[in-house]
Amino acid sequence: MPSTWEEFYAENPPPSDLDKNKQRVQEFCQKQLEHGSHIVLVTSGGTTVPLEHLTVRFVDNFSAGTRGASSAEYFLNSGYAVIFMHRIKSIEPFVRHVMGSKFLDMLQVSSSSNGSPTISVKPSEVDNLLPILSKYKAAQESQKLLQVGFTTLSDYLWLLRAICECLSAFGSRAMLYLAAAVSDFYVPAEQMPTHKIQSQDGVPTIHLELVPKILQPLVSLWVPSAYVVSFKLETDENILIKKARSALNTYKHKIVIGNLLQSRRNRVVFVTTHDESEARLTHSQEQQGLEIEELIVAHLKREHEKFISGTN
């Protein structure tokens, strides 16, 4: 079984589109370096663990990518260039506001003067859609947003390392906002059957291995000068701070954002090696549509600026 991150990469092949995505990331990073931009990598969504090489079945988690997608928007608002590394088909920035039938409900079909059908936004929905569309177009025109997709755990880890290689050139101006829900267990490639597991063969025995802790080489080797942010999700408040501090002591990164499953939409705790602080939405703020990610990004922007200036 792979016991180190080096062995994981040696024993699990890269995704077929890795070179294409690396080129896209390199071109994006070069533009941001030329502009002197601050840049953030936002990882978002869950990772699948295939049970077969020709995958029909897989192990998954519940993450839909809400935190990553909303945070990416607030980082763009704060002036950052954003690489949004997301689980394919998870929630994406801007689109998240008008997903599914909600978007179709905003449209109407009518006839033009020559009788041809036309599609337009309902007048009652213009004020809702216009700010979203304007911000999306601004992000596209400024070339400050790059979206890169993954599906499996192996895809995620290969892509993460490739992006870190590009971000190392930014030094302290780079932030990594590791909000993806990465699987803790996986099936090693050599133990997976090639074809679909057949139910007629009875209940399969599946042996899962622990995923090597990639945060260690990321912090110490790949982007040693970057401002690295990780997340810790728990269900027991009594162990949340302890687990967050344990992660900081182990991996030596800058901050852990702790949150409880039950209250993750309205409360988080920022834990560093020297202190802890809280961000919480009031009931009134929630009613007004304020999102906790806006408070998270504002806090991180201040701390990142301190870090860059050497006062953190």
UniProtKB/TrEMBL annotation:
It comes from the Eukaryota. It holds the Pfam family DFP. Residues 1-21 are annotated as: Disordered. GO terms for biological process: coenzyme A biosynthetic process. It comes from Megalurothrips usitatus. This is DNA/pantothenate metabolism flavoprotein C-terminal domain-containing protein. GO terms for molecular function: catalytic activity. Belongs to the PPC synthetase family. Residues 166-285 form the DNA/pantothenate metabolism flavoprotein C-terminal domain.
